[in-house]
Design a protein that fits this description.
Elements: H1 2-25, E1 27-28, H2 30-40, H3 42-63, E2 68-78, E3 81-83, E4 90-92, E5 95-109, H4 113-179, H5 185-220, E6 227-228, H6 244-254, H7 256-276, E7 282-294, E8 298-316, E9 319-334, H8 337-343, E10 346-354, H9 362-428, H10 434-469
Parallel strand pairs: 1-6
Antiparallel strand pairs: 2-5, 3-4, 5-7, 7-10, 8-9
Length: 473
């Protein structure tokens, strides 16, 4: 039985270990990282909410063009002195009353305010939708740059680890010389110091790598660190053949932020037309149907007559005689709720005209404010053009410099590789000293690090330029 439990425990542990390894080994390509960011990034979610609000505003402005129809109904009990809504007489009794009505109101003309508001909200809706797409494109670029930064820092880390490995191999050689009391003892201690230096470089490189991964993780809005799948990620380096002015002209034609800014300008101009509508009369038509009910309402039906004394008298032959009168008798019956609603039904229809004569200069000042908003939107668009043009010029300059540095470091690496090969052979054979060896080694490793940095710096700048051109792949 114990063996059975032990076997189950081993199988479960193996299964858990396999699952844990699969979790750790899960890697993500650039396309998968972009997909995750588009689903999780908070900036995109915020822009989507704003776009949805703009959509609701547009739909509401269209609904404002329709007539408004409203119904009302109330039922209550009144005690004490009141007015009978059926007879308009004063009564002093408990009264149950009810009113019902249906009204309709439609604006015929108000200086095209409603129409222009609808057009303005439609432009704002399109601008918000474009700004949402611009946010997605911006996140795509930032994820791509973050992805490249992770690759760059990873390459630097691998280079630092390879450097330590070479130094450790050299340490083993010098340790044998040191134990055999041959060669220069200082070379062994110098190598020990170089090992410590290389280990420190690994710590620094690993910290940079983790920082780059953390930045990418924040862009993706995920909780756990992720590993990158780079097997299909090509880092081809070729000269970028477009000028900064060409990139800017493409950006003017294709970059969605410019288009969104232009829509904001058009929407602001519609705001001026809306404000001007305050100077024009408002014409509307209205109509309504109303009825009411009163518990005091009654109908009276004749049911015969009777002779009653009037209270007056006449004197005949010295004798007072009462004056009699024939009076019709009536039977009172309450009028039913439905019958009263039918009997008391009334309708109304009319035309309303409101003419603004003076409103404390509010309309005039509103027009001025809206014109200021137009100017602000135009300045904002112009500022965007200037900022982007300057950014493209600077990025293009940095890209060209990075490419030249990359080409230069390629030659430098080739030269230092040969120099290190020669110095390593000479040092291992005791012909050269440690200073020459370590100088040659550091020159090569630094050149390799500079080459990697120049390579990724160039790729980053190219990605940014293509982003402004409208290429987000």
């Amino acid at each position: 039985m114990i063996r059975t439990y032990l076997l189950y425990a081993i199988i479960s542990l193996m299964g858990w270990t396999t699952f844990a390894q699969n979790q750790v080994e899960k890697t993500y390509s650039l396309a998968e990282c972009i997909t995750i960011a588009l689903e999780n990034n908070l900036d995109i979610k915020s822009a989507a909410i704003q776009a949805n609000s703009a959509k609701v505003n547009h739909q509401q402005s269209k609904a404002e063009l329709l007539p408004s129809i409203n119904g009302n109904f109330n039922l209550g009990v009144n005690t004490g002195r009141s007015i009978d809504p059926f007879t308009n007489d004063f009564i002093n009794q408990e009264l149950t009353f009810s009113n019902a009505g249906l009204s309709i109101n439609a604006t015929v003309f108000n200086g095209f305010r409603l129409i222009n508001t609808t057009k303005q909200n439609r432009l704002n809706r399109k601008a918000s939708e474009m700004e949402l797409e611009a946010t997605k494109q911006d996140i795509t670029l930032r994820v791509t740059l973050g992805y490249l930064q992770v690759l760059n820092s990873k390459a630097i880390l691998e280079l630092a680890e390879a450097r330590l490995k070479v130094t450790q191999q050299q340490l083993k050689i010098q340790e044998d010389f040191y134990k055999n009391e041959s060669g220069n003892p200082a070379d062994y201690t110098d190598i020990l110091g170089q090992v410590a230096s290389d280990e420190t470089n690994i710590v620094i490189a690993r910290n940079s790598w983790n920082s780059a991964r953390l930045n990418l993780m924040q862009l993706l809005n995920v909780k756990d660190m992720i590993a990158l799948d780079t097997k299909d990620f090509m880092l081809a380096i070729k000269a970028y053949d477009l000028s900064a002015d060409t990139v800017y002209q493409d950006a003017v034609q294709n970059w969605i932020t410019f288009k969104a800014g232009e829509l904001r300008v058009e929407a602001a101009k519609k705001g001026v037309s809306i404000a001007k509508a305050q100077f024009t009369p408002t014409v509307s038509v209205f109509g309504g149907v109303n009825t009411n009910y009163s518990s005091a309402a009654q109908t009276f039906t004749a049911v015969g007559s009777s002779i009653v004394e009037t209270g007056d008298f006449i004197t005949l032959d010295g004798q007072n005689l009462s004056v009699l009168s024939e009076e019709t008798n009536f039977d009172a019956q309450r009028i039913g709720f439905r019958d009263q609603l039918d009997n008391n039904l009334n309708t109304v229809i009319g035309l309303s005209v409101q003419v603004p004569f003076f409103n404390g200069l509010r309309a005039k000042n509103n027009v001025r404010l809206e014109k200021n908003r137009v100017d602000e939107s135009i300045v904002a668009l112009e500022r965007t053009h200037v900022d982007i043009k300057n950014t493209i010029t600077q990025v293009h300059f940095d890209m060209t410099t990075a490419y030249l540095r990359y080409k230069s470091f390629q030659k430098q690496v080739e030269a230092f590789q040969e120099s290190f090969r020669v110095n390593e052979i000479r040092f291992n054979n005791g012909i050269s000293n440690f200073l020459n060896y370590i100088t040659s080694k550091n020159n090569l490793e630094n050149a390799k690090a500079n080459l990697i940095n120049a390579q990724y710096e160039y790729l980053l700048r190219v990605k940014i330029l293509e982003y402004y051109r409208g290429n987000f792949g």
